[in-house]
Amino acid sequence: MVHSNSLFSCAVLGAAAQSAVPDGYELRPLELTDFRKGYIDCLANLTVVGDVTEQLFAESFEEMQRAGGYFVVVIEDLASQRIVATGTLVVEQKFLRMCGRVGHIEDIVVAEGQEGKRFGKTIVTRLLHIAETLGCYKSILDCAEDNVPFYEKCGLTRKAVQMALYAPNK
Hints:
Layout: E1 25-29, H1 39-43, H2 54-67, E2 70-77, E3 82-93, H3 96-99, E4 101-110, H4 119-133, E5 136-140, H5 148-153
Parallel strand pairs: 4-5
Antiparallel strand pairs: 1-2, 2-3, 3-4
Organism: Coemansia biformis
InterPro entries: Acyl_CoA_acyltransferase (IPR016181), GNAT_dom (IPR000182), GNPNAT1-like (IPR039143)
Subcellular location: Endomembrane system; Endoplasmic reticulum membrane
């Protein structure tokens, strides 16, 4: 059962979070009600999402909330009550580095028509802040070659090589 409508506490975002977005927008944790505010539509601007029902969304939300370590940040256009940007930080507990933590940044997306408002950079900056606050010794992400300049502007540097194996029919 969900203990709160928010995936995580707003306090984790830090005091400067709201000042990073223009008036009429709100930066906050993902909420259970965001399904109806177009969260899935926003994600679909990034990649294939599939047929995610409201029930499936709620089940996944509750599982993430129970497990902890999931920090999905959204920006909502308050006038339209639509999610216009999002990004995720998943915190991995390690045995390396004296049982340190690594932050994995995923699913950075800005909805069509919302480009140029620095929402992508704002989301990445907030996720990096959360990772640092939670004691992550590094934060990493995978991106397309075309996106490298954007992430460099966010303070990240190129490191290593990504490898992938996708499960059949996924």
